[in-house]
Design goal:
DNA Primase, Chain A, DNA primase DNAg catalytic core, N-terminal domain, alpha+beta, 5 domains, 5-stranded mixed sheet, 27 helices
Length: 633
């Protein structure tokens, strides 16, 4: 039994949901209650199935899953953190997460304690420097309460303040070097890294001290901002400034706003906009995006309006769309801006900051203006279209051609035909040309050739009997095993489902979180051509899903080499999967309708609409099954 299955076996989903404040009541063999993920407390549309260990909301959320998905959604965690949390609850030891030895953990805690003491040290120097305090009050508009809340301080001018102060308190010189507070000279001496600067403590998402950001006081000093160097507890690409305070507001707003400067973050929080973070002057990294995606997939980039800020916007967009590729150093590539939209599965928008003002200047001028700016944030392609056309003579045919050459490749990389058509129409209207001329000008992408995969046996793989007694889980397991071996079948599967009038295979077709995550990566693999599909899957999956992947590959290695036969088998099982899911929902909804009629019927219409939707789906699935059987005859 895998760690995941062992945890599922030991954690009762009814207990887990009840402890989250959801009052469940018996409804046949299942449990119902009010959904904890939205505000509607009039419709008990949240259902828990104890036998399968799963849940679903038939109301506003329209989501469902198992214990891992519940904890991920409830607490804003990713799969790794949810697994750790539930493993502790179940008493299951996860060896792979014990990456820090006790000695390392003790050393890291020692560094963090030193950094906390440094916050106090720099804070005292600020309180004793009226001119710097006046700058923060008068020039930056910060209150004493905000200065205290964010722990701002001041590093005095001079090179030798740190060492005598902290060594008198029991710290070693090497501790101060390891924490990034002392720099080492070429001749072996040491000196204060931060001098005559406003000190801004930087904490990780859990609120633990990691390092400092330091802003100049003297405008002649350079650089304007100086961060702690890379240390065992400080890695710029793994941190987002302000996230420790912004996590809950981000989840509450279901939106994260990214600005460029630390003081911008502080000023916006002071103004009441607490869902704001900063990537510390760098382009967004994979780890930073993963941190944000724990809380939301709606991200607005609101970077400074100067030239550097605009370039940072473009870097940020590119980073966001290639973050799952692990391609290393990021470079601006106009064609690549939207290349990985499907893989990120996020709603990224760009906010235009007016009048060459920074975010802190905007809220100082008019606090309500910021909310409108964020609300008016535009989709990426709309932003790019406006940026490349600004100040251009749109009556000049050559200008039109230049703009089309920049924008059309971005449109071509969008994930859905509807989006592509919508933006081609918008570009045609902007350039005042016939959309057909844009279609004719559309550059053709390179032909991607993939290695065919040849199985070693013509024997047909059977569903895995040893994996679980749950029939639905068996089917999910078998289908994923086929797709892992033959990822190219996903293209043909999607086309066949569309021919039957059904939607493409989606994450929602799978009930279990580990299966959902695996399929999501499979779908991402098919949307990229930089890596071989299997290699991409292995590079993207959390390590805790490696045992599942290995088992899937082993249990389904003897596949029928006849693609049509294998495809038909896959389609048939997926139709069964959808039918089982739809029937379960219809039966539950009918029970809820009967119960609702007895209590007054206030929510009866909602349940009836849901029932009609699933009944129509069942009819469509039955028709598809009939067509498939005729084709196989």
């Amino acid at each position: 039994m895998s760690n995941i299955d062992e945890i599922k076996a030991k954690v009762d989903i009814v207990d887990l949901v009840s402890e989250a404040g959801v009052k469940l009541r018996k409804a046949g063999r299942n449990m119902t209650g009010f959904c904890p993920f939205h505000d509607n407390k009039h419709t008990p549309a949240f259902v828990v199935w104890p036998e399968s260990g799963t849940w679903r909301c038939f109301g506003q959320c329209n989501e469902g899953g198992d214990i891992f998905k519940f904890v991920m959604k409830r607490e804003g965690l990713d799969f790794k953190d949810a697994l750790q949390k539930l493993a502790i609850r179940a008493g299951v030891e996860l060896q792979q997460y014990q990456s820090e030895t006790p000695q390392q953990r003790e050393a890291y805690d020692h560094l963090r304690k030193l950094l906390e003491d440094a916050v106090f040290y720099y804070r005292n120097h600020l309180l004793n420097n009226p001119s710097v305090l006046a700058y923060l009050h008068e020039k930056r508009g910060l209150t004493d309460a905000t200065i205290e809340t964010f722990g701002l301080g001041y590093a005095p001018a001079g090179y030798d303040h740190i060492l005598p102060y902290f060594t008198q308190r029991g710290y070693l010189e090497q501790d101060l070097v390891d924490a990034g507070m002392l720099s080492v000279r070429d001749n072996g001496g040491v000196y204060d890294r931060f001098r005559n600067r406003i000190m801004i403590p930087i904490r990780d998402e859990q609120g633990r001290m990691a390092g400092f950001g330091a802003r100049i006081v003297d405008p002649e000093d350079v650089p304007k901002f100086l961060n702690s160097p890379e240390t065992p507890v400080f890695t710029k690409g793994h941190l987002l400034y302000g996230l420790d305070r912004a996590r809950k507001p981000i989840r509450a707003a279901d939106q994260a706003v990214i600005v460029e400067g630390y003081l911008d973050v502080i000023a916006l929080h002071q103004a009441g906009y607490e869902n704001v973070v900063s990537p510390m002057g760098t382009a967004l990294t994979e780890d930073q995006l993963r941190l944000l995606k724990r809380s939301t997939r709606r991200i607005v980039l609101a970077l400074d309006p100067d030239v550097a800020g605009q370039k940072a916007i473009l870097r940020g967009l590119e980073a966001a769309r290639s973050a799952m590729d692990k391609e290393g150093e990021l470079a601006f590539d106009a064609r690549g801006l939207l290349r990985n939209e499907a893989r990120l599965q996020a709603d990224l928008r760009v906010a235009a900051l007016p009048d060459e003002l920074d975010p802190d200047e905007i809220v100082a001028r008019n606090k309500e203006e910021w909310a409108q700016i964020i609300e008016d944030a535009k989709p990426i392609i709309t932003h790019v279209m406006e940026a490349v056309s600004a100040g251009q003579d749109l009556n000049d045919p050559k200008v039109k051609n230049q703009i089309a050459e920049q924008v059309l490749p971005l449109i071509d990389d969008l994930g859905t035909p509807l989006e592509r058509d919508t933006y081609r129409q918008a570009l045609a209207r902007m350039l005042r040309v016939d959309e057909r001329s844009l279609m004719a000008a559309q550059p053709k992408g390179p032909v991607v050739r993939r290695k065919p995969r040849v199985s070693e046996s013509n024997r047909r793989a059977e569903p895995v009997a040893a994996t679980t007694a749950n029939p639905r889980k068996k089917i999910e397991f078998y289908c994923l095993g086929i797709l892992l071996h033959r990822t190219e079948l996903l293209y043909r599967l999607d086309r066949k489902l569309e021919e039957f009038g059904l939607s493409q295979l989606a994450v929602e077709d799978f009930e279990y979180t580990d299966h959902q995550m695996l399929f999501s990566v499979l779908r991402q693999a098919m949307g990229q051509d930089e890596k071989e599909h299997g290699q991409f899957v292995l590079s993207q999956l959390p390590e805790d899903l490696t045992p599942l992947t290995n088992e899937l590959m082993t249990q389904t290695e003897n596949l029928n080499s006849l693609d049509d036969r294998l495809l038909d088998d896959l389609i048939g099982r997926l139709l069964d999967l959808r039918r089982t899911h739809a029937m379960t929902n219809v039966n539950q909804l009918r029970f809820m309708q009967e119960d609702e009629q007895q209590s007054g019927g206030a929510n009866l219409k909602l349940y009836q609409e849901q029932t009609i939707r699933f009944t129509r789906l069942l009819n469509g699935l039955d028709q598809a099954k009939l067509k498939l059987s005729r084709r196989q005859a």
